[in-house]
From TrEMBL:
Domain (Ribulose bisphosphate carboxylase small subunit) ranges: 9-106
Domain of life: Bacteria
Free-text function comment from the UniProt entry: RuBisCO catalyzes two reactions: the carboxylation of D-ribulose 1,5-bisphosphate, the primary event in carbon dioxide fixation, as well as the oxidative fragmentation of the pentose substrate in the photorespiration process. Both reactions occur simultaneously and in competition at the same active site. Although the small subunit is not catalytic it is essential for maximal activity.
Organism expressing this protein natively: Hassallia byssoidea VB512170
Localisation per UniProt entry: Bacterial microcompartment; Carboxysome
Name recorded for this polypeptide: Ribulose bisphosphate carboxylase small subunit
Similarity annotation: Belongs to the RuBisCO small chain family.
Other noteworthy facts: The basic functional RuBisCO is composed of a large chain homodimer in a 'head-to-tail' conformation. In form I RuBisCO this homodimer is arranged in a barrel-like tetramer with the small subunits forming a tetrameric 'cap' on each end of the 'barrel'.
Gene behind the chain: cbbS
Length: 111
């Protein structure tokens, strides 16, 4: 067993290599398939214990396709490209956020 090098980790999926656009789309599709409500959030830093994330527009209550969600990610990225951007999934039965993952890091050309 090998110890991972000490480096900054970011939320769900942070121990994996950066997700490709197709992998991000699959994760968003999973959110929709589970009946979770997707939302896009952004912040200058990803430190969850110190800062709150800002919601980009309203949660996407009526989103039916991954493209709807990814369009909002792209809109957020074009306006706040210097911020971390994440997609979250809310469970309307449990009334809480059940998953989140970062889709954009500052200085990155990824989705």
């Amino acid at each position: 067993m090998q110890t991972l090098p000490k480096e900054r980790r970011y939320e769900t999926l942070s121990y994996l290599p950066p997700l490709s656009d197709a992998q991000i789309a699959k994760q968003v599709q999973y959110i929709l398939d589970q009946g979770y409500i997707p939302a896009v959030e952004f912040n200058e830093t990803s430190e969850p214990t110190t800062f709150f994330w800002t919601l980009w527009k309203l949660p996407l209550f009526n989103a039916k396709s991954t493209q709807e969600v990814l369009s909002e990610v792209q809109g957020c990225r074009s306006q706040f490209g210097n911020c971390f951007i994440r997609v979250v999934g809310f469970d309307n039965v449990k009334q809480c956020q059940v998953l989140s993952f970062i889709v954009h890091k500052p200085g990155s050309s990824r989705y």
